[in-house]
Amino acid sequence: MACALGRHRFTSVSRRGALALAAAFALAACDRQPDDRAFQSIDITGADWGRDFRLLDADGRSVQLVDFRGRCVLLFFGFKQCPDVCPTALDRATDAMRHLGPQAARLQVIVVTVDPERDTPAVLREYPRALHPSFIGLHADLATTAATAQAFKVFYRKVSTGGSYTMDHTVTSYLFDPKGRLRLAVKHEQSAASVAADIARLSKENP
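^ thats the sequence. predicted structure below, dont judge the formating
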């Protein structure tokens, strides 16, 4: 059976990076069994990338995926001064929490900054929590940020805007199941209800 992959939206990532990410999703999607199509996100179960990270929280503590074992993790790469894509993704995460109701306690939303020069620990302490008190922001030095993004097939670059700059970056979010396994790639255009449904299914599979 032929597999088709829907178009993924990015800000202005490089053509090579976008094609590489789309190819990785296509290969993972084509390898799924038919009954896995109930997920509304792209099923990338079994991907041999995006398996872990080691980053710092706003208090300087080292954080890894294992720290959230028992909960689903929704991981997004973005930055505080992002004008539209990041607020949209994080607002959707907040709405998904509402859809989940009591099950929201089994979800951890994490924002990894691709702009560590401006997203200081103080910024990352307040920025995600302004949307929901359980959301956390993680950061690292420039080299570790680049290595982590590469490990998750996330592409980003600094773009000059007069006397300042903005960041172009991949807009896909990732969902891990409660056992810490990368399972789903969440398309930017998905609704909060569809994301919540996928989270609920992952939680049900891993009680």
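The chain has one domain: 15-205.
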